[in-house]
Amino acid sequence: MRASCTGRFILLLVGAHLAAFAAGCAPQFETLQTAVDGNSAEIQRLADEQTALRRDVTALLAMLRSGQGSGPDTDARLQANLSQILARLDQAASQQADNQEYMRNLSARVDLLTTRLGIPTLGEFKPPPPGGADLGALPEEGRALFNAAMADRGRGEFAAARQGFQDFLGRYPRSEQADDAAYWLAAMDADDGEHQGALERLQALLDRYPDSDRRSDALHKSVASAHALGRDDEARRLLGRLQAEFPGSEAAELAAALLSE
């Protein structure tokens, strides 16, 4: 149950960031400060729960060592008390895990805001390996940064999402989710009508991540962007590539239907 110490350490770092850019990002600061304050209270509640659990366990151990009230009734009562303590421990552990994940995502959100002001982010205090993280070696901070960008996109905060994906690719260009970040940047370009930019991003994704599970989606999106630019010869060539690599796939069928309209 030492995770609360980690939460407090992250909280201190987040607090330092908030103090640094409070003047420049007042609305965002107020929202994040509220989140930090609420999480601080949650950390204290979990600490109090741990203290209560330790007290209960100490009392039970004292009873067992003294041999007081031995017998079936006492054994049944002890078992019931221990079961309750174990259930409380499981609940506290689950809440602590949720708290840690919340703080990682909050930390990543602060990173996104501070990056725009040129303030070093939490990740910059611990530089990534030269050349970016290797496949399968994505640290928790990287996952939190990616998840924060996805959450921003889901809420329709596309500027923040774009910044988040770009930051992620800059730090972890060879990680397991780099192709996903590249795809969503291209998709947002296409959604904004920036089809040339989308095509360039998608081609870079296909070249750099040939085994990506986003490959069929990227080819389908490429067909759509080429078609939107009026370059139907290019769109048909990309469609042929999609059909050759993923015959009978939904992506191929959708792209073919688009060109047949």
Write a brief structural summary:
Helix content is 77%, strand content 0%. With 261 residues, the chain is mainly alpha-helical.
Helix content: over 70%
Strand percentage = under 5%
The secondary structure category is mainly alpha
What is the approximate shape? elongated
What Rg, in angstroms, do the CA atoms define? 26 Å
Rounded to the nearest angstrom, the distance between the terminal CA atoms is: 61 Å
Descriptive overview:
With 261 residues, the chain is mostly helical. Helix content is 77%, strand content 0%. It has 2 domains: 123 residues; 69 residues, Tetratricopeptide repeat domain (Serine Threonine Protein Phosphatase 5, Tetratricopeptide repeat), CATH 1.25.40.10. The chain has 10 helices and no strands. Helix 3 packs across helix 4 and helix 5 packs antiparallel against helix 6. The longest helix has 45 residues. The chain is elongated and about 85 Å long.
